[in-house]
Amino acid sequence: MDGGKKAEQPHGDVAEEDPGRQQRSMVDEADGDEKAPRRSKRVASLDVFRGLTVALMILVDGAGGEWPVIGHAPWNGCNLADFVMPFFLFIVGMAIPLSLKRIPDRGRAVRRVVIRTLKLLFWGILLQGGYSHAPDNLTYGVDMKHVRWGGILQRIALAYLVVAVLEIVTKDAKIQDRSSSGFSIFRMYFSQWIVACCILVVYLSLVYGIYVPDWEFRVQNTDSSNYGKVLTVTCGTRGKLNPPCNAVGYIDRKILGINHMYQKPAWRRHWACTDSSPHEGPFKNDAPAWCVAPFEPEGILSSFSAVLSTIIGVHCGHVLVHIKSHTDRLRQWVAMGIALLVLGIILHFSHAIPLNKQLYTFSYICVTAGAAGIVFSLLYVLVDILNLHYVRAPAMDRHERDAGVRDGRGGHLRGVSQRVVLRGHQQHAGKAKMAPSLRFGFFSSVDESNTRLQVYWVRKHVFVKVWHSTRVGILLYVLFAQILFWALVSGVLHRTGLYWKL
User: Fold this and answer.
1) Which keywords accompany this UniProt record (predicted)?
2) I need a labelling partner for 131 at 20 to 30 A (CA). Which of 7, 252, 437, 441 fits?
3) 427 vs 280, which has greater pLDDT?
4) CA 298, CA 75: separation in Å to the nearest integer?
């Protein structure tokens, strides 16, 4: 019965509650049991969390260049932008137990996971691998000599593949409908935590154990005075977590190739590179060579470590499936979130393991996953328990509408068009651009003779000039002309039932 039509109904990452709760008697509701979650096909707070994370992504990309506290940290540390990726991974992980629980056939579930992974990889490489490499010059296409293999969607795809297959392989049909509480959920999925520990041990062993030799690269940035020169970076060490000599970058250079890595990493704003740090600015005269070198923030080893964020999200999904009480769910999520936050902060400020998004260190995993758990808990209270109407916008959820729920409460601020918005996401904040695709195809050289397109007329004349402040104008532009705009677009698409489903 579980393999029938209901398994195909949800779109995207499903956020459904345990179906056993739908069988609660009307007597329980009449008794006014405060702990009993209300009967709903979807966990609205997870949809809201997804939508807010998309909005956060647009905010940090658009305003991060002018507001460093919003943009990515140049190296160690954790700014607002550094929470976007782990929040997405946490959401993906939390949705996995909910989306796979109604597919009892393991072979069919694996096929579904593999197909979705391939779709994400395809769009990730197409959109971030080089397709829109110079939108200001109206130059489009994929430069096969410098295509970027890493990226946001690629990391999400790999984390989803590993954790979803792990969930399929390790789940026991006998415990899927079993209620639980306390630490018994850890025991029920003990094998998944064993895998998580193995991932952590392998990551730490490689990061601190691999010898990083000296390396060289050719400067590809045409704006650099060293364009075309071959520069050498001196390392000859192991166990370092500094920008030039870490094992994460070394593995990516060896496997991906230095020409296939991100050319403008956040470390360009490092204090060793520019006096404008944490803003981007001209390099110092004595800036080290690595300042103009590529680095892949979504590389192989860091993506391997990022799987842990998704596994933590899966655990929170298991709590949602097996625990029926609002209070007990919140106790689990909040306790784990606080514990992870405290552990990560201690590791960072004791200088044991610094917070670092680009290396995806263990302390960074703890802080961001802990924050994700606490933020989700807050949204769960507001949306699924208190049912505050103003958090739910702009349209009725499709599955609620299909189920006959027409109480006028409206839908959720959801990520229904998040994959469309993702195409505007660039790694270094403040550089996200939307421009028409006027050239297509694969090519081996860049044509620089195109006329530049002025895409920010509205930002300059409507926002910046009115407020007489570039920083305030750009922030308001992002909030109203980008986030609000895409929210309205998503609402229209959602109301008309148009979805881009991966």
Assistant:
1) Membrane, Transmembrane, Transmembrane helix
2) 252
3) 280
4) 14
